[in-house]
Amino acid sequence: MRLIFLGTGGTYPSMKRGVTSIAVQLRSEVLLLDCGECTQRQLMGSSVSFMKISRILISHLHADHFLGLPGLIQSMSLNGREDKLVVLGPEGTADMVESIMNLGHFDCGYEVVSQELAPGDYIDAGTYGITAANADHTVPSLAYSIEERTRLGRFSLDKALALGIQPGPLYSRLQCGETVEHKGIMVHPEHVIGEPRRGRKVVYTGDTRKCSSVTDLARAADVLIHDATFDSSLEEQAVKYGHSTARQAAEVAVEAGVGRLFLVHISPRYDDSSRLTAEAVEVFAKSMVPDELSEYVIDLPD
Amino acid sequence: MRLIFLGTGGTYPSMKRGVTSIAVQLRSEVLLLDCGECTQRQLMGSSVSFMKISRILISHLHADHFLGLPGLIQSMSLNGREDKLVVLGPEGTADMVESIMNLGHFDCGYEVVSQELAPGDYIDAGTYGITAANADHTVPSLAYSIEERTRLGRFSLDKALALGIQPGPLYSRLQCGETVEHKGIMVHPEHVIGEPRRGRKVVYTGDTRKCSSVTDLARAADVLIHDATFDSSLEEQAVKYGHSTARQAAEVAVEAGVGRLFLVHISPRYDDSSRLTAEAVEVFAKSMVPDELSEYVIDLPD
């Protein structure tokens, strides 16, 4: 699982930071978290194949979070895409998608489906699931968790050998959950395979004030990507405009017990984001403002 | 008069070239020729004040020519713009503008007016005029000329002195077109002021095949900015998709007798545009592919 920070700025772009979009590279597909203007150009400069994007998760319908959609959708069509694309988002998403599909002269070569979600909705996507939760912004806004399914426990070579089973076809059958017979003894998978191991979990807040629904969603996530539009000296503004300070984001990271915090939606006023990093790190050491086009690999937990 | 090449690529962006937008800096206002996605970010990195944009001229309603509008319009509003903004374009422009003003949650703090033009339409903008002409593309498409008004002729100090008039208030009055009396002689402005001098003229084709309506519009322009999507080996494709080759653009430049040719709407297939430049220069020496964010000053003609 790999995160690619395509755009980490908020409100409008600066030369330093594009507006919000983060790609999540899964085993054989890519999810996009928001899709601000210029996302397609950022994708061209990244290691992500933009044709592999299966779902785009829109947090809310402010322009800096979705204006990259029409260009990206059209470029995928120009490049011969045939696979369905799903755009997920809060109420209003279906209307927005319909509008952007009808801008100017354009016939799409594949199906674009919109799906409106409410807080608490869960999508089972096979190897992973998507959960939507309420974010606390000035307009209806969703935070998302992406969580891989629980994996099989670790196979214990030692235990298998102690039972007298040598490496070979029986190992595969046990790993597939089958009970096998070995020299007259029935060996069950749980004799040689450990506890199921959890998958990886990423939570993205979109634009939000510090709030408990996001903290709950982020519980024990490997990575939390949180709104950090302002530094603490502008906390009043953060509350007024439905955003968080870097310190508040770090407080959520601590309360939710996450592994790592990325601060995004940085206001264009910050040419230098070190002030934001500094105040977050004081609260939660593993905090950082990702550079544009930087990548982060989330290893499988043991 | 200054041109700023914000985006010079066609169809979809590459890392090297953004899609089309060119700013024309006039004395106290800026015109934008097309407004592809990412134009606002490019403006942030240029010397142009994006708040000074008075009119945006859209050539046609393919996404790579107008998808930068909603983001730019919204960012102007977030930055406190109060002045009216006019979006000009071919049929369909009014619908497109209405759609983009209604995307997501957005209240615009100033007036955005759309104005649909037909080939031959002329807009008198005071110190300059805009003429629309038919371009030959796959959808309704306009080429534009921007031409400054004729300026007063040059004041001849020699002639004034020969008439015995010394530098002073009479000079200003003559330059304002007044007939003055000097030592009993009536001096008319034409006695000391030369022939009116033409203003500067820029022509932008948008997407087009080589065609006579564009050549006619471009007659004697200081600068022609012409579609040059392909090189000559792809001439069939150029015809099929309603574009020009670099050579064809140069032929138009020669036939129209322009001062300088800029080749734009470069296909993303060209990492290196030297092939396009080379074939244009063979036909018309003053041809070039402008670099992104490069600027070109058009001096006043004598």
Per-chain topology:
The structure is a homodimer of 302-residue chains.
Chain A: E1 2-7, E2 21-25, E3 30-33, H1 39-44, E4 53-57, H2 69-78, E5 85-89, H3 93-101, E6 112-116, E7 122-124, E8 128-134, E9 142-148, H4 157-162, H5 169-175, E10 180-182, E11 185-187, H6 189-192, E12 201-204, H7 212-218, E13 223-227, H8 235-241, H9 246-256, E14 260-264, H10 274-283, E15 287-288, E16 295-297
Parallel strand pairs in A: 3-4, 4-5, 5-6, 12-13, 13-14, 14-15
Antiparallel strand pairs in A: 1-2, 1-16, 2-3, 7-8, 8-9, 9-12, 10-11
Helix pairs in contact in A: 7-9, 9-10
Walk me through this protein's architecture.
The structure is a homodimer of 302-residue chains. The first copy, chain A, has helices spanning 39-44, 69-78, 93-101, 157-162, 169-175, 189-192, 212-218, 235-241, 246-256, 274-283, and strands at 2-7, 21-25, 30-33, 53-57, 85-89, 112-116, 122-124, 128-134, 142-148, 180-182, 185-187, 201-204, 223-227, 260-264, 287-288, 295-297. With 302 residues, chain A is of the alpha/beta class. In chain A, the strands form 3 sheets. A 7-stranded mixed β-sheet of chain A has the order 6-5-4-3-2-1-16. A 7-stranded mixed β-sheet of chain A has the order 7-8-9-12-13-14-15. Helix content of chain A is 25%, strand content 24%. Chain A has 2 domains: 2-151 and 197-297, Metallo-beta-lactamase, Chain A; 157-192, no CATH class. The interface between A and B is medium-sized, with 35 and 35 residues.
